[in-house]
Amino acid sequence: MTARTIAADAGPAVRRRPVPWSKLAWVTLRQRRGLLIGGGILLGVFAVYMVIMAVIQNNAYATVAACHPAGALKCQDLARTFSRTYWGGGAGPVIASGGAQTVSSLLFAIPVLLGAFAGAPLLARELESGTFRFAWTQGAGRTRWTVSTLALPAIILVAVTGAFTAIFWWYFRPFLADGQVSEMLPLGFALLGVAFAAWTLLAYSLASFLGTLFRRTLPAMAVTLVGYIALAMATATAIRPHYAAPVTVQGWNNGAAWVISQWVKAPDGQVLNQQALGGLAQHLPPSVQNSPSPDAFTNWLTQHGYTLWQSVQPNSRFWQFQLTEGAWLLAVSALLIAATVWLVRRRGA
Amino acid sequence: MNVIETSELGKRYRRGWALRDCTLTIPGGHIVALVGPNGAGKTTLLTMAVGLTRPTAGTLTVLGGEPPGSPGALDHIGFVAQDAPLYRNLPVADMLHLARNLNRRWDQRRAEDRLGQLEIPLRQKVGELSGGQKAQLALTIALARRPALLVLDEPLAALDPVAREDFLASVVGAAEDDGVSVVLSSHVLAELERVCTFLVVLARGQVRVSGPVRELLASHGAGLEEIALRHLRAGIPSSRTEAGQ
Questions:
Q1: Coil, helix or strand at residue B60
Q2: Which residue of A has its CA nearest to B86?
Q3: ipTM
Q4: Is the residue at B224 inside a domain?
Q5: Which residues of B touch A16 (CB under 8 A)?
Q6: B104 to chain A nearest CA, in Å?
Q7: Is the pTM of the predicted complex or chain greater than 0.95?
């Protein structure tokens, strides 16, 4: 065989338009089809349950809300029964077993589970199985392939979790109206507004990044889980209270707010420490000590010239806080995704 | 046009240099056998040529001056890595469709015709194919991209003797029919001896000999296997063997 001339069109001189995103999107979706179908069915079943419960709870609460006057014994009874049945999950219908309180704490796990399962295998599986050697040597190029692989699931996740937030609003409306839960409390805050989608996006970005870094799916999932829980707890306890300076208010019954801290001032204006307060509680008259009312102690304090104070984040700051948290979570997610693309670009065979 | 051209190319991993001071010119229109013992740097050289890894030292261009991994290079190089990695959970038809969507240049008819001739069912999952069928599918996908250069890393290693024969026949057929330049690596020269028109021998990260088979045979007066062995044993780079190009 002698050297042949190479076909005329083979020269790389001609530049053409890059492979369109729609084609890359097909590739990404086809590769994640199992996850899409499996996850879709699971979330679909869950959504149906949430919608059914939302209808039942809102209907049940309508009778509570319609009861007049609200202070009447009959109405308070009705409210208590509603709360016990649907919030605490005491003696309600089987479908409500566990109650909204339990459901809401389970919902906390959804962002990190969704994010870890969707994000960790994206690049880790390619690196584990060696298929990246195929994917990164095709005409589309590895950067474009990576961007499609990362962006499309992210968009789908945000859309799905955003839709779930709408269901949650509906589901929790009776309890928010009833004061069972404040949308500013960590329990409500993480599920409502933009937080639910933003935290899912963060878990997903973290899992994709770690999957690329470790080149292993399972370790990436495990570390995502640990990292996510640590960050979520740090945010609720140490970061979120500082989005705005808390407001100091008198009294301990500030319902429509997230209480950061509370304290008691003596009649002379001195703030009582825990020890002083404990000492005071031990020397109360027996009538107060044995009173069944939970407010007996605080009532006695106010009657004797003490004042009660709270540092709170009022409910009116809900959207300000949501947007603050959403913004920084989005920024961190974008950084993690950019770092993932960077890792892919510099990664060798 | 030189399909691969390197100058003092080097690649260092954590464990040391995998390739060092590698100066090599591979002209187009050949079936090139890249041979050498395990760990000689064959895979390192090929993965750099297809743009998966970046050199630590020196320069490397492909297809007459393109940087490896650039859009122009990716468009015209069909690469099959060792063990022919493909998506095992996809049916063959979807694997083709996926590759089609990842490339600007794609010849679907050709791919389907080839698979038809090979009697590889389109509905079968990639993971359920035999080793020979999987290698042929990977080759089919690489050829459907209508490449100017086909790079195959240890394509025969996992195949039984019959599958090897069939695979090599496919490669030679593609080279003859479409004028595709081919670079195949192997640690067994005997496998490639009958088909290659250009030989590159690598050992310990350095080029020991390289040149068109016909010239090597004429100047050495020995069989190809013996030439390769002689250079591997001598342990010194046969520096200007390719100077005649």
A1: strand
A2: A131
A3: 0.93
A4: yes
A5: 75, 104
A6: 6
A7: no
- Chain A residues with CB-CB distance to B99 below 8 A: 138
Does the bond joining A20 to the residue before it have cis omega, within 30 degrees of 0? no
- Comparing A14-23, B18-27, B112-121, B168-177, the range with the smallest average pLDDT is A14-23
Helix (H) or strand (E) run with residue A312 in it: strand A307-314
Indicate whether B103 belongs to any domain: no
Helix (H) or strand (E) holding B149: strand B149-152
Total number of domains constituting chain B: 1
Instruction: Tell me the CA end-to-end span of chain A in Å, nearest whole number.
Output: 33
Nearest chain A residue (CA) to B85 = A131
Distance CA A254, CA A256 (A): 6
DSSP annotation of B10: E
CB-nearest to B87 from A13, A18, A31 is: A31
- Nearest by CB to residue B52, choosing from A15, A131, A348, is A348
Cα-flanking dihedrals φ and ψ of residue B80, to 5°? -120, 110
CA B172 to chain centre: 13
Cβ proximity of B209 and B201 under 8 Å: yes
B179/A4 Cβ within 8 A: yes
Q: Is B148's CB within 8 Å of A3's CB?
A: no
CATH code for the domain in which residue B172 is found:
3.40.50.300
Give chain B positions within 8 Å (CB) of A10.
63, 76, 146-148, 179
Confirm if B172 and B194 have CB atoms less than 8 A apart: no
Residue B48 domain boundaries: 2-86+148-244
pLDDT in tens, chain A (349 residues): 444 444 444 444 455 688 999 999 999 999 999 999 999 999 999 999 999 999 999 999 998 888 888 778 888 888 888 888 888 755 555 555 568 888 888 888 999 999 999 999 999 999 999 999 999 999 999 999 999 999 999 999 999 999 999 999 999 999 888 777 778 888 889 999 999 999 999 999 999 999 999 999 999 999 999 999 999 999 999 999 999 999 998 887 766 788 888 888 888 888 888 888 888 878 888 888 777 777 788 888 888 888 888 898 988 899 999 999 999 999 999 999 999 999 999 886 5
Is residue B193 in a domain? yes
Q: How many whole angstroms separate alpha carbon B143 and alpha carbon B197?
A: 20
The H or E element that residue B136 is part of is: helix B131-144
Residue B56 in domain: yes
